[in-house]
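Thread: Newbie trying to understand structure tokens

Hi all, I'm a second-year student working on a class project, and my supervisor (Dr. K.) asked me to get a predicted structure for one chain before our next meeting. I've only ever worked with sequences, so writing a 3D structure as a token string is new to me. If someone could post the tokens and maybe explain what I'm looking at, I'd be very grateful. Here's the chain:
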Amino acid sequence: MNAFIFPGQGSQKVGMGVELAEASSAAREVFEEVDEALSQKLSDIMRDGPEDQLTLTENAQPAIMANAIATLRVLEKDFGVSLPDTAGCVAGHSLGEYTALCAIGAFTLSDTARLLKLRGQAMQAAVPVGEGAMAALLGADIEKASALVAAAADGEVCDIANDNDPTQVVISGHAGSIERAIGVAKEHGIKRGIKLPVSAPFHCSLMQPAADRMAEALTQTPPQGFTVPLYANVTAAKVSDPATEQALLVEQVTGRVRWRESVLAMRADGTQQFTEFGGKVLGPMVGRIDKEAQVASLITMSDIEEFAKGL
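---
Reply by user tm_fold:
Sure, no problem. This is what the structure looks like when written as tokens:
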């Protein structure tokens, strides 16, 4: 069984999607529809930058989604590969969960773009710039990271944001608690903590105002039926019911991205191959979680062609 997986923030770069748009009308149509939905030339920022504009959370989130969906549409329309016939399930990392839902028909492309634009704005507005921070803990498993956040909190918020793989955990919270965690990481048997260049502390309890805004938005635009099941970030479990997923998307804003556990759950349910669309971030994580898993990353036309030939 194959799982189609979709990357999260940090996988954006200037020039993303350019080659696909030049080679395929299927990709161009995705970028045009997203521009129209947002009343913004996001495709220009994706193509030409500047980088600081693309990195803004409210631009990065819909841009990463658009690039991944364009990659999927090229596979579907130019190579005749259907997702329900090829993938037994889908999953995405943080914003990638919305991309995954778009891929399986739960949201239209335009609605996905608008929801992610709002999500980016809401997450940015939830905490004044400078008050929050995030750090990646390298050489940390979940046990070591849990002990570290408990020691570093000191009355402030310090949460585990992403359990990415057995060697990398990301923490999030008040800037002071994150600085303290980085300072004492070695004492907890963690190789090092690196502060991440993000503008807000995602996936921690400080994001509650953003979760409230997403709850409202998802009431207006709830997910529809899925073509295949999705593994949700906050439960690391299979979901097929749109109403259940709607609640989980709200929880996801403040909740932990349980990526490592999600991959293990997909493996336990019979997934042998993981195919990442529009990035090469999740594939390497999957390889570190389970060395036996087969991994493919589709970014270029030749990647897509190669993958389609192998089916």
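A couple of things are worth pointing out once you decode it. The chain has 15 helices and ten strands. Residues 107 and 238 are 18 Å apart (CA to CA). Feel free to ask follow-ups in this thread.
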